[in-house]
Design brief:
three-stranded antiparallel β-sheet, 2 helices, alpha+beta, 166 residues
Amino acid sequence: MGRMRPSSLRPPEPRFVPAGEHPLWDEALATVNRDLAATLPGQRPLCLIAYPADAHEDEQVYVALADGNAHGNSLQPSGSAPWALWTVAEAAQDTITGCLWQAWPVCTLHGLGMHLREESGRPVWNCAGGGRPGDPAHVRAAVGELDTLHRPHRPNRKRRKDGRGA
């Protein structure tokens, strides 16, 4: 039988954060989970986990997979809903990418992983585009709205005789 390490040397056990403990993060996580359900329907919703405070740090809260696995940085306290949504979306992306080893979210038009960007005061998922002229970077959707489609503006797109796009 192996020797047990003293309890002071064991890493602290995380706890699942109950709903209502961090209302801004709860709301932001619900929004991000809509994107997760729309893009990875087989994946269970993300949750918040917390590692207890120690002598050097306050309690650290992370966005985690349903099984408690997390990757990336802890969430930073915020006083505004847009900032909370940004930090939770960024943490969710880090966890999914780091734990599942896949890009997330992915632009359905280009097959590229997207990144957060701010537009009109709210976080959006931005695609770098196809890299060809006429296939520019574009906002795919606001965070929480990946089940809707926002097509990029294509100024050089040819028009059909009936006035609709090609």
